[in-house]
């Protein structure tokens, strides 16, 4: 079911959230607490924005996060004002780098926790929704990446369109909800263009996966589950809501589908 | 551009062709001689039929064949009456296990050397030709795997249909040739159902990749390029031809497209 | 702390014990029950004897057993009269193939569960006990491999010596026990020369790790923990004991150190 | 035989030398020109110093540099005032991350091109020269790492000793030369403590491997072979010489052994 964190704020090294907290993302790869699956050992990934390039950097690895020596070193040395990190629990698709989150397209970065059941039966229909000019970006076989590419097609891929990402996500979720019918659709995801950070918590025919955030003047961190025992400082994002953290502004919440 | 070998005959260990000859497939991974690309270091794979299971076993690895310690051990100990081995030179798609040959579907095994240019532009059209009931077998993003799945759809996936594999391949190549238009289509491939071995050499708008075989009463080995200097014993398969090695019979050649 | 199985008897495919039982070794890689560590996700390995070669074949992989597609295929197709399989929970040394069990030297195969504490402090002293003519076989940095190489030096490496493996292991454990002093030494291991199978359960300054076997006329399987719920058929090997399963004979137990 | 680059100067992204030049290190992994081995596909590594940590970051990977998607992303986004990059051609030891350069110990970073023949015969003697308090840093089995650990023991590991690295290297090479006897010793290496950069070109009983540098007011880059066709700007380091590039100063050369 995957666990992830997203950060936006003053530039910090990734270790602050990926490796150092008592219940860091690496600890969650071994023992997640608020998930039906405690183990997230099917690969992991990092995505981050830096100076000099509008496109994010990414690091994907099929080994578990807990045993990758490179991860610790990168998290100590990579500094970023906006980064994503994700540990994967595969739900049927292979453990390849191309199936590891976060996914990227131009300046966009996306990661996801959940599933669109029954994916083997839904796959073709969702992939058909990806427009031709984006289709070659399809590098793996996950539902997550396919949903990202369909999301991009709701106007985000066109830089001149200035499409609102929350509005685009609403359109995506409306279409997916219709396709899901009686089956569960779980969508807890993060999206960014390098400036603003968006996170979404949504579920139909099943309880939405957990999502929390902690905000301070220096930044906001959005997480699948709290990174430490100081529970009072973690605010739960309600189900069927979008979290919007625009650069230099505080956190806003907005409803998703009515 | 890849290099491969296919064997059918008395059961032997894979080392006879994969690792032991002076110009073995592992040597070809470092220094292929009859290819525009001498280096085939972008992963490799084995496929073999054994007792007790109609479906072939496979082994895929993203490391180069020359540095994989497992490969040597497996080739010494795996014995088979019909096996494939393939070293890959990627032509644009990522080095993941799901992009490594040979590909499998039920009892079918397939591997390929060549390309369908311009793949990024052709990809969607070829994938659209894969029928719904086979589509979930699409695990990677190569042109090779997509062509295999379309080939299966020419009747091979239906076990009751008893479709002739050469006829199915003719249909596939006719369709692909039309799609390729003025661009090169290179298709040097091997196919088996665990009983019979088929190999194909075909090219349009470019010279077909090389293909040779050596036959003896104990078996036939089909190769991208000769495995040793005894050139007189290697027979070149003509371009636009199918090689048919039915179980317990000799080698036959048949034309492909007229 | 690792989990493993060893089999000797009529030739069978590895899947019988590695992947098929309800509490198979692959299931144990996710959820071991009789270990202080439930997760054994730090690589795995296979070792097996076959026809035609006195030396065993091996397969080592740094990915967890549960997500390696090759493992399932190999276990279905590799058949052997004597094989080992091991899933690793690293205790401080890196996750590399050279640190994955089983280890091999000539016709010998060895795997281990336990540790020699404090390894970072003991390492040099143990490695010093490896004789010069064996030293280059040291490929990794685990205590397990080092103990194997010292064991070989108790006469096993010399094929003409016809040294009794149980006696050699007694000598090894006596030396290690002396070196361990007040610190724990846990040694639950399997050893074979391709003919006979030996397993050992030993612990000082700590409870020895569990070890069980199930014997039938067709063979014996020795395991870290039972592979299914039919507990009555699994016999616990007592602590401080050697299990001896000579080719074509039943199981014998013998005491280790007095 | 390996290829490498080392840079010291104004902070730049690693892509300037690792991936962008016409004959970049990644190109050299496929086609090195001034080496007996053109292919350097047996893993690679990066090491770099950054703000906030005296210890360098490292990234090691067993895949070839040319097919690792992470490498390109990291080189675009990692910025450093002093970094190393290395592509490996193994000379007998396995392709594991622990055998990939650069090696690190505290604030020291080291990488090497060459060999100490006959390594299987010399190994134990060289490893015996590693002092007890450094011995646990031995993570792999290469001659390169062993030589680094012996080098550290010439005073560098003791931070209060303020040992001159060139003098320490002279001591190392004198000892190794004596041990090599009539056999070749090739040592072309880079060393840094995060402030100063040292490079060495040395060979006995064989021609020393090539070494070049290019200096400008903004920094110095030291390379196994030139990164572009502008040969006039690349200065060859003479054999049996040390290159010293102290932080904020120009390049000095000093003789090694007399």
From TrEMBL, chains A, B, C, D:
Residues of the Glutamine amidotransferase type-2 domain: 2-248
Domain of life: Bacteria
InterPro entries: EgtC-like (IPR026869), Gamma-glu_amide_hydrolase (IPR052373), GATase_2_dom (IPR017932), Ntn_hydrolases_N (IPR029055)
Pfam families to which the protein is assigned, alphabetical: GATase_4
Keywords per UniProt: Glutamine amidotransferase
Protein's UniProt keywords contain NADP: no
Protein name: Class II glutamine amidotransferase
């Amino acid at each position: 079911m995957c666990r992830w964190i997203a950060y936006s704020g003053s530039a910090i090294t990734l270790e602050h959230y990926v490796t150092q907290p008592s219940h860091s993302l690496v600890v969650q790869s071994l023992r997640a607490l608020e998930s039906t699956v405690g183990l997230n050992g099917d690969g992991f990934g990092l995505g981050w924005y830096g100076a000099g390039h509008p496109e994010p950097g990414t690091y994907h690895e099929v080994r578990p996060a807990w045993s990758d020596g490179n991860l610790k070193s990168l998290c100590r040395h990579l500094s970023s004002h906006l980064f994503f990190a994700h540990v994967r629990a595969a739900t049927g698709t292979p453990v390849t780098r191309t199936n590891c989150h976060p996914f990227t397209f131009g300046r966009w970065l996306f990661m996801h926790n959940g599933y669109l059941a029954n994916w083997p039966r839904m796959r073709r229909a969702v992939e058909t929704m990806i427009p031709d000019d984006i289709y070659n970006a399809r590098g793996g076989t996950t539902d997550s990446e396919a949903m990202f590419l369909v999301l991009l097609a709701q106007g985000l891929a066109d830089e001149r369109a200035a499409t609102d990402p929350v509005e685009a996500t609403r359109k995506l979720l409306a279409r997916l909800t219709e396709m899901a019918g009686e089956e569960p659709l779980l969508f807890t995801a993060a999206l960014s263009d390098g400036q603003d950070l968006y996170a979404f918590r949504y579920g139909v025919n099943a309880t939405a996966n957990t999502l929390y955030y902690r905000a301070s003047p220096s930044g906001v961190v959005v997480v699948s589950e709290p990174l430490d025992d100081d529970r009072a400082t973690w605010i739960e994002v309600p189900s069927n809501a979008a979290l919007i953290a625009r650069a230099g502004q505080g956190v806003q919440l907005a409803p998703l589908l009515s």
